[in-house]
Amino acid sequence: MSDLHHHTPADARPLEVRVATITMVAETIRAVDFVSVDGQPLPGFTAGAHINLKLPGDLSRSYSLTNGPETRDRYSIAVNRDVASRGGSAYVVDRLKVGDVLTIDPPHNTFGLVEDAEQSAFFAGGIGITPILSMIRHLEALKRPWKLFYAARNRASAAF
């Protein structure tokens, strides 16, 4: 069984990452891939983990990783532009550009996956699919069975 509550060590240092790609995946949702600025593999993570982005104006926002932990060359997130945004999602969706460099905290996880379950069942709605995508991708790599039940307001707002 995996460590369900894998946390980042207190002495973990922030990382500098570069925006490699930005893709509009729904009417208000952007998928963003980050790579290390020095070209080295990024620190590992467990399925369901998230990163904290350090944004202008002393903002720090947490976003779930959508890629599986087998992928070490990038961190992938998806961000929904909240109409009541206090700056985080609006910045990522409206202003972030390919090539921008950001500081992030290394991935940490408080939403771990039981990897050896006979079968995993996931329930997600809207942008809440993001940590589940990481888990599903990891289970696929492990060749473990899973089912997903996903709901969204409408097709245009479905993240993936």
From TrEMBL:
Keywords: 2Fe-2S, Flavoprotein, Iron, Iron-sulfur, Metal-binding. It comes from the Bacteria. One of its GO terms (molecular function) is 2 iron, 2 sulfur cluster binding. Residues 12-114 form the FAD-binding FR-type domain. Transmembrane segments: none annotated. PANTHER family: CARNITINE MONOOXYGENASE REDUCTASE SUBUNIT, NADH OXIDOREDUCTASE HCR. This is FAD-binding FR-type domain-containing protein.
